Amino acid sequence: MFELQFDESKCHACVTRDCLTRCQYMDLDAQAAGIEMEKIISGQDSRVLHECRTCYACEEYCPTGNHPFYLIVKRQEELGITPLPDPIIRQGIQVGVPFRGDPEITEINGPVLNMGVFSPLARLAQGKLFEDLTRISTDSRKMHHFFCQLMYLHFARTSVINQRLPGVIETISAYKPTEVVHFHDECYGTYTSYAPAFGIEVPFRSIHLFEHLYNRLTELREEIRPVNYKVAYQRPCSSRLSPDAHAYVDKIFDLIGAEHVSRRYVDENALCCGSTIVSQKQEGSRRFCLELQEENIEDMKQAGAELCIFNCPACMQTMGKQVAENGIMPIWMSDLCRMAIGETPA
Amino acid sequence: MDSVYAALVEIVGQDYVSTRTEELFTYSKDLGTSEPQWPDYVAAPATAEEVSRIVQMANEKNVAVVPLGGGLSLAGLALPLKGGIELDLKRMNQILELNEKGRYVVVEAGTSHGKLTAHLHKHAPHLMHSEPGAPPAATIGGNLAIHGQGDLGHPYGFNSDMVSGMEVVLPTGEVCRFGSCALGNSWYTLHPLPDVSMFMGWSGSTGIITKVSLRLFPCKKIQEQDAFVVEDEELVPDILYELTHVGMAEDMMVVSQEIPPPFNRLHYILINISGDSRKELEFKRQLMFDDRLSKYIQDGTGGIGAGGQEVPRPVVSKTSDWRKGGGFEYVGAIMPVTTYPECYKSGVEISGRHGIPYTTLGRVLGSGHSMMFSWTFAFNRADEETVRHARQALHETDEKVLELGGTLWKPAVFGQKLLMDRMDDGTLQMMQKVKHMLDPNGIMNPGNWEVA
Questions:
Q1: Which of A181, B282, B340, B362 sees the fewest Cβ atoms within 10 Å?
Q2: Do B301 and A82 touch (CB under 8 A)?
Q3: A325 chain-B contacts, CB cut-off 8 A
Q4: Do B301 and A85 touch (CB under 8 A)?
Q5: What mean pLDDT comes out for the span B309-316?
Q6: Is A321 part of the contact surface with chain B (CB cutoff 8 Å)?
């Protein structure tokens, strides 16, 4: 089976311990962080394994790219320290089980847009921004064959990811894509961060949706009319696996004339949407999640945001209604971009 | 011309009577596994007076009369087992009075639940009635005739517990009213007059319900559904006890089904809550999840599976048909809540034996005083073998219900006989007396609730 390629020496040599000292949900100084990290490395119990909110952020904070979060999740599973109750883990694992037959695959030999497990949202990928891409995973009955499985990082189940992911990669590869634009950050993070970290071979080239949108908007620059909205962006957890791609957020906003409001919880300081925190075993998690969301949305309001931009369906599902009830319109990034070139949002 | 046909034409008009094969065919089937039963006539009256004249004529000519609402019972309860006149009541669909301050609505019995819901949304958005899990075409009268339940089952019990008045055409043609309306007053209460209403739960075999006054309840601005998930079925009764103690939910159902996979071998306690503000909803959630259920969350045996979801109405019928061929039928039974684990396990076992993906659901009635538990069996209408398996599974489940100390709900004839076989003699004799007193010629929905 696949093993995490984790370099202990990098951790031993680390002085700042950013992975844990910068954590927004645990309070550790560098010394305490060092002690806890050593425990985790050596396979011992650590408070971190119990208190982790699984926001993925330490993957981004680590200055050496040493995958502290993947290690935490792996240790959680090995030691049976699960952040979520058992039925929620079983529910989650069963979500990814295909049950409506196999997808019909034809060779594309060109660029594709992988909808992953979000086939019902295929309507978001329409218009000029997507016209050169062939969409795959458009049938919601078959979409679980394209499910990248990375969600199980929230469930302390790297074993499930490692068991299923090669089959998913095989399915996508069967289309013979020249490159794969991933609709969801999570898929992109899977193929560009998680898979290499565990030595899982990915035979296709992955492109982040935002890079694709930026490039297409650049090609269509003449058609862009500034949207002139003040916008906040709800950064999803899996974006922490691809900080380079996150840079496209501001590049897109600049290109289409959206003002990215200045606020506290942005970029590396972004707050988790709370979609899994709400169910976690830690005492008071539900209430903690609500307060987190309220703080996040209040920060958007204080900054004067008119729109909240989402790219992750889980974030939209978790916070969209609440954002709207606070007078900020929730909108997909793809829709915002389409508005900028005069198209009607889906 | 056939004299019955001629009489029906004279009563309801030519457009509302039929003996045409293609129309009789439609009325010969319901959506379940029952064999087709052909009526000789179909008639669609528009008033209680027309209903009265039809049953008087039917007595004279000794022809059976089978009242039909939405035709959605699935158990063959409105199929004409002995031929005769199929009395389609869907033309009697007028909403007669909406008393907002008094919180009741008077409707003709053929009014569909969907129509009433739409009417309330438009004219009294602060009020709601208890809508069953059946499709919106289910009628008010039909639902009462089978002691139906709905999405206000937790606070208020059976839908038949929410009646404030009723008009019934007796099998001999008299039109009777029950409750305050019998005094010429408004239709605001069924009590406290002597209880002579013997029509609910009889599947139309003691009379035809023609008008109903239904209680209405506050309809809050925000309605959402949360899910609490457990893996161990033994925990379900305790969790329901905790939740019913708090009493914050409008509806509580426990769903477990093999397909789709996320529901397999897990128990989703679906909790519908409502509030006029986020503050009200959060108050309710704190009491339920933080105060009563936190022990399950922290020990890892239960968890919040979803929160703040939209409430789909109706729900039950949508979750049942996961097999090609579009057929399903279920055994519904009123069970003690404590029997949930056994009910679930028997559903898995019986379904597995017949090669059917299991689907079970329990709906809490009252403060946990009972639950309606359903075992659903899907089949392919085009595959007789799967129909046979479903039918056999239904019969085995009927027997299992009684073994577990349950009471069959809206049983088909097979289940009715099982119940009457176990009924104490005094009760059985009284049922026989009631039936003979009200329906001396045995014309009303014959074959149903017939005491041997």
A1: B282
A2: no
A3: 278
A4: yes
A5: 70
A6: yes
Rounded CA-CA distance B241/B260 in Å is 28
Q: What is the dihedral of CA B55, B56, B62, B64, to 10 degrees?
A: 0
Q: Where does CATH 3.40.462.10 sit in chain B?
A: 221-410
CATH of B221-410, one of 3.40.50.1100, 3.40.462.10, 3.40.50.2000, 3.40.50.720: 3.40.462.10
Q: What is the spatial distance between Cα B281 and Cα A155, in angstroms, rounded to a whole number?
A: 28
The residue-averaged pLDDT of A146-162 equals: 97
Neighboring chain A residues of B296 at a CB cutoff of 8 Å: 85
Q: What is the mean pLDDT of chain A?
A: 97
Domain covering B95-218, topology: 3.30.465
- B427 contact A CB<8A: no
A87 to B305: CB separation less than 8 angstroms, yes or no: yes
Peptide bond into B39 cis (omega under 30): no
Res. B133: pLDDT tops 90: no
Q: Do B300 and A287 touch (CB under 8 A)?
A: no
Distance from CA of B443 to the nearest CA of A (A): 49
Quick check: B307 and A278 CB within 8 A?
yes
Give the per-residue pLDDT at A99. Answer: 86
State whether residue B265 sits within 8 Å of chain A by CB.
yes
B230-269 confidence digits (pLDDT tens): 999 999 999 999 999 999 999 999 999 998 899 999 999 9
Of the candidates A87, A284, A325, the beta carbon closest to that of B303 is on: A87
Would the CB atoms of A287 and B290 count as touching at under 8 Å?
yes
What is the span of the domain harbouring residue A115? 111-209
Shortest Cα–Cα distance, A132 to chain B (Å): 34
Q: Convert A288-298 to b/e letters by CB count within 10 Å (16 or more is b).
A: bbbebbeebbe
Cβ-Cβ contacts under 8 Å for A28 (sequence gap 6 or more): A17, A20, A21, A36, A48
Whole-number pLDDT of residue A192? 98
Once rounded to an integer, what is the mean pLDDT over residues A66-83?
Answer: 98
Contact A244/B at CB under 8 A: no
Kindly determine whether residue B229 and residue A278, on different chains, have CB atoms separated by under 8 Å: no
**Looking at this predicted complex, what is its ipTM?**
0.94
Decide: residue B300, CB within 10 A, 0-12 exposed, 13-18 middle, 19+ buried.
middle
Predicted confidence (pLDDT) per residue in B325-381, tens digit: 778 888 999 999 999 999 999 999 999 999 999 999 999 999 999 999 999 998 888
DSSP state, residue A312: -
Q: Which residues of B79-104 are buried (b: 16+ CB within 10 A; e: fewer)?
A: bbbeebbbbbbbbbbebeebbeebbb
Chain B residues with CB under 8 Å of A95 CB are 261-262
Size of interface A-B (CB pairs under 8 A): 70
Per-residue pLDDT of A277-294, as tens digits, reads 999 999 999 999 999 999
**Residue B391: how many CB atoms within 10 A of its CB?**
20
| A200, A219: one domain | no
Indicate the residue of A85, A87, A99 with minimum beta-carbon distance to B259: A99
Q: What pLDDT score was predicted for residue A128?
A: 97
Asked if the C-beta of B309 comes within 8 angstroms of chain A's C-beta atoms, the answer is no
Query: What tens digit of pLDDT does each residue of B49-91 get?
Result: 999 999 999 999 999 999 999 998 888 999 999 999 999 999 9
Between CA B225 and CA B270 the distance in angstroms is: 7
d(CA B66, CA B208): 9
**How does residue B320 score in pLDDT terms, banded at 50, 70 and 90?**
low
Stretch B179-195: mean pLDDT: 95
Considering the domain delimited by B3-88, tell me its CATH architecture. 2-Layer Sandwich (3.30)
